[in-house]
Amino acid sequence: MISSTAVVTGAASGIGRSLAIALATMGYHLHLTDRDPDGLSSTRTAIEAAGTGQILSLRTVDITDQHAVVSWADALVAEYGVPDEVYHVAGIAIWGDARTMPHDKWTRVIDVNLMGSVHIVEGFAQHLTVDNPTRKTKRRKLVFVSSAAGIIGLPWHAAYSASKGGVLGMCEVLRFDLAPRGVDVHVVAPGAVDTPLVSTIDIDGVDQTNKRVLTAKKLFQGHAQSPEQVAASIIRGVRKNKYLIFTSRDIALARWAQVNAPFAYRGAMKLLNRGFRWVAAGAQLN
């Protein structure tokens, strides 16, 4: 069993919950946070029922509040010491036509996904780094969950992709900036994942009770991985010290095609876009 400490954000549901439970099963001591206190309590109950690992702290934090995030990180370190690993999973999904997407939805998804990630850096990076680490120094881990949408051109994902692509770009810099100071940075690019976000996702201007939309969601869920599978892929990728962690082969293939077979990639994206337009046709809200 591992006796390391880890922070997990977004631990109330979906990937964050599954990741927290998986780490607890491995014997981790955990600090869990989310904006949903009831969901956090449910995760704690599941971990305690398993009888493995240990929850050191449970805290409701809004990751869009920079002061709250930094204060929480400082207090956590002051009371429990520097965590070995930080997994930032919390995020939201908002899709829509870029021509009509309301400004407040652009800012909301960027505030949560991108600026929330920035706040995690501001809160933890200074604590995780070590001056002049040696070969014997235990390397710490800083892990961010981005998305396949941060890499490939999925239809109606402009705002969401801006937020997740920003996380990828930030991590690309941090991996080199923090490596000499004893911190390994990892970024995860999940594809389709069957989380509660599937039923609560905001698709701007689209009636989600429409039959075509419901059919598309069923197809998505049939193709999607479970949060438990994604959590296992994240842990495996971090253990293998992979920087960019794909949790499904289709996204790894899409990334390869984007670089090495651009004609095939462009054709696939055109088909996806056409399919999305078909789904949205007749489901537009007035």
TrEMBL record:
GO terms for cellular component: membrane. The keyword Oxidoreductase applies. PROSITE patterns: ADH_SHORT. Pfam families: adh_short. The keyword Oxidoreductase applies. SUPFAM superfamilies: NAD(P)-binding Rossmann-fold domains. It comes from the Bacteria. Keywords: Oxidoreductase. GO terms for molecular function: oxidoreductase activity. Belongs to the short-chain dehydrogenases/reductases (SDR) family. PANTHER family: DEHYDROGENASE/REDUCTASE SDR FAMILY MEMBER 7B, DEHYDROGENASE_REDUCTASE SDR FAMILY MEMBER 7B. This is SDR family oxidoreductase. It comes from Corynebacterium anserum.
